[in-house]
Write the structure tokens for this entry.
Amino acid sequence: MDPRVGIFAGDDPLDIARRWLEEAGRHEPSDPNAIALATVDSEGLPDVRIVLLKSIESDAFVFYTNYESAKARQIDSNGRAAFAVHWKSLRRQIRVRGLVEREDGPIADAYFRSRPRESRVGAWASPQSRAIASRAALEAEVARLDAELGEDPPRPAFWGGYRLRPLEIEFWADGAHRLHDRYKWSRPTLNHPFEVLRLGP
């Protein structure tokens, strides 16, 4: 197999992902941590939306959402998800597939507290993915909770994180004449080491 050098070098795919994300943060003009998160509903129909990747841990990618949202219900029903992130400025992308578990403890509490107060109130007020009567009704609920929750709104029980632990991570970089560079790291279970293959463009 070709030696992995330059931007693909490294023995841990999550370290490589973290390095690419840090580089994107210096070049991408808006939301370099925006990922397209894919889930599947109870009928097997795929669903995708943009969420913000908030951290890359030693063995997981972490994002946050309302646990009563469509994405959360779909994740909780089958425990699997995938995402892609594309950085136009770097002409690179990462694709990830894996198993998902909740993060609803002290780490989620700390992240919620780090958000602007207005965003915390909004998280309390929004029945995410469910029908609402009007924008005015939503704003009225925000105003009610703004007065009720005090200066330091706690994290609601229905809001928290998810940790996506990867079974596959693919790194892609644009190449001349559509001869792109692609490397896929994969493992059959979370307890196995990753193997890496170079893929055709």
In short: The chain has a mean pLDDT of 95. The CA atoms of residues 109 and 155 lie 6 Å apart. The first helix runs from residue 13 to 27. Strands lie at 34-40, 46-56, 61-66, 80-87, 92-103, 159-173, 181-186, 195-199.
